[in-house]
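User: quick one, sequence for these tokens?
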């Protein structure tokens, strides 16, 4: 039996770019972890965990893409799509806050970690207990045949996501930039790479969450792969 796949060019690019983000972010994450075992650089392991879980934020469109390819139907609901995409927010945030706390407030790192854990648990509760209220299914007038779901503005899960992104900008982006400006040579370059990766990640996450599928969105996803590579470059040697 020959499958007849009903995807236009936008649908193909939507699925392929999401899959590439999951694969490359996962590969860079695992590579950072393995390098950390060799070098003893603990921050490299933290960055690897963060990169791995950040890549899984694109698991929803990836699974929907392969569901259409293999089964000729979308995922059963937008709620499943949303959970597959955003259930990784809490672990990604915890790794990110561990790294950011070490950069900005090392003495308060444990407090920052506990705050991030509590915030992550609250987010996951809203995500799983009110999934239907958290997402809206965007109509598909172009026949893309892939689900396009957006967070509903004002929903508690959306508010927590905004707080998380703001915290990452302050702790990780500004923290690594400050550390870079206080350093010199190779260490300075590493911190600058790290700050740039976080400064780029924020708009990438925002645009991907709210842009409709199109060529701009796909360019944004390619930028996400560049962000993962920058983070690997910045953390592959022990900088703290």
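Assistant:
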């Amino acid at each position: 039996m020959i499958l007849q796949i009903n995807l236009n060019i936008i649908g193909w690019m939507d699925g392929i770019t999401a899959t590439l983000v999951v694969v490359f972010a996962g590969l860079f994450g695992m590579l950072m972890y393995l390098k950390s075992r060799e070098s003893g650089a603990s921050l490299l392991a933290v960055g690897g965990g963060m990169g791995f879980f950040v890549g899984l934020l694109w698991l929803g469109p990836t699974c929907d893409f392969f569901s259409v390819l293999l089964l000729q139907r979308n995922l059963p609901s937008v709620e499943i799509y949303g959970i597959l995409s955003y259930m990784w927010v809490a672990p990604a945030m915890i790794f990110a806050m561990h790294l950011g706390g070490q950069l900005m407030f090392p003495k308060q790192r444990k407090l920052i970690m506990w705050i991030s854990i509590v915030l992550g648990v609250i987010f996951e509760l809203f995500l799983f207990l009110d999934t239907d209220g958290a997402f809206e299914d965007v109509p598909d007038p172009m026949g893309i045949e892939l689900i396009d779901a957006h967070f509903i503005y004002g929903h508690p899960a959306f508010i927590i996501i905004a707080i998380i992104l703001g915290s990452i900008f302050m702790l990780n982006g500004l923290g690594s930039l400050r550390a870079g400006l206080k350093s010199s040579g190779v260490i300075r370059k590493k911190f600058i790479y790290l700050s740039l990766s976080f400064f780029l990640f924020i708009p990438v996450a925002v645009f991907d969450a709210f842009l409709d599928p199109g060529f701009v969105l796909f360019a944004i996803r390619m930028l996400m792969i560049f962000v993962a590579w920058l983070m690997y470059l910045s953390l592959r040697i022990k900088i703290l």
